[in-house]
Amino acid sequence: MAIALTSLVEEANRYLNVTAISDYCPNGLQVEGRPQVQRIVSGVTASQALLDAAVEARADVLLVHHGYFWKGEDACITGIKQRRLKTLLANDISLLAYHLPLDVHPQVGNNVQLAMQLGIDVEGELEPGNPRTVGLLGVLAQPLRLDAFARRVEQVLGRQPLVVEGPEVIRRIGWCTGGGQGFIDKAIAAGADLYLTGEASEQTFHSAQENGIAFMAAGHHATERYGVQALGEYLARRFALEHLFIDCPNPI
């Protein structure tokens, strides 16, 4: 079964409430391809490797979390940007990208989906009412030793997290997928035992140590694999489409 590209985009935009969130990039249809859609390929970042895989998979739409046209970047269509856009246009594939709206969504969002993977019960937002603070706060049903939780993260995400020691036993966790290390202060203020994100900065170590909170950086890519999969599955069910998630390895 095929549907109109416009119908798919309208539903995705509505479901993620994109007009309510100010972002660093355009959310929604970034590159227009063929007008009818049967197959969605999803992935974390619209890299050349993912584009090539989408071509091989005969995608009509490529659905990603990290797309193009970020604020402050060079607007010239040269180098890798030219090659990426050429791949999409030559193969008539649409690029559909959602950044912050996909992070914060209460059902398919990156943060909610990561909590489901790791067994964290969501209590609320790190900073209620501020859509720019996309992190969440929650608890483990049963307290765990920090090293035991680190092993759980490694088993689920397939990579060993960077760990800054803190409380030996953790229950209350703050987290933000991707490059959310800057929100550690929100987790500290909320009384979290652990703050979990994708990346770390030099100053993150000192913030954690001096405030007595444990910290884990589990990988930007690794922590953001689940939202786009869930969104792709939602759209596939909604319109009876084919959906394939392709995970292009990224150690960062």
Account of the protein in words:
By secondary structure, the chain is an alpha/beta fold. The chain has 2 domains: 3-99 and 225-245, NIF3 (NGG1p interacting factor 3)-like (Udp-n-acetylmuramoylalanyl-d-glutamate--2,6- Diaminopimelate Ligase, Chain: A, domain 1), CATH 3.40.1390; 104-221, NIF3 (NGG1p interacting factor 3)-like (Udp-n-acetylmuramoylalanyl-d-glutamate--2,6- Diaminopimelate Ligase, Chain: A, domain 1, 3-Layer(aba) Sandwich), CATH 3.40.1390. The protein has 10 helices and 13 strands. It has helices spanning 5-16, 48-56, 79-90, 100-104, 110-118, 146-157, 184-189, 202-211, 220-223, 226-239; strands at residues 3-4, 28-31, 36-37, 39-45, 61-66, 94-97, 120-125, 136-145, 162-164, 169-176, 194-197, 214-217, 242-245. The strands form 3 sheets. A 6-stranded mixed beta sheet has the order 7-8-10-11-12-9, sandwiched between helices. It has a 5-stranded mixed beta sheet with strand order 2-6-5-4-13, with helices on both faces. A two-stranded antiparallel ribbon has the order 1-3. Helix 3 (79-90) links the parallel strand 5 (61-66) and strand 6. Helix 2 (48-56) runs parallel beside helix 3 and helix 5 (110-118) crosses helix 10. The longest helix has 14 residues, at 226-239. The model has no long low-confidence stretch (mean pLDDT 96).
Question: The biggest beta sheet, please?
Answer: 6 strands, mixed
Number of helices: 10
List low-confidence stretches.
none
Rounded mean pLDDT score = 96
Distance between the termini: 37 Å
CATH structural fold name of the largest domain: Udp-n-acetylmuramoylalanyl-d-glutamate--2,6- Diaminopimelate Ligase, Chain: A, domain 1
**Strand segment count:** 13
Per CATH, the architecture of the largest domain is 3-Layer(aba) Sandwich
Integer count of domains: 2
Order of helices and strands: EHEEEHEHEHHEEHEEHEHEHHE
Strand proportion: 25-35%
Label the structural class: alpha/beta
GO cellular component, one term: cytoplasm
GO molecular function: metal ion binding
Keywords: Metal-binding
InterPro entries: DUF34/NIF3, DUF34/NIF3_sf
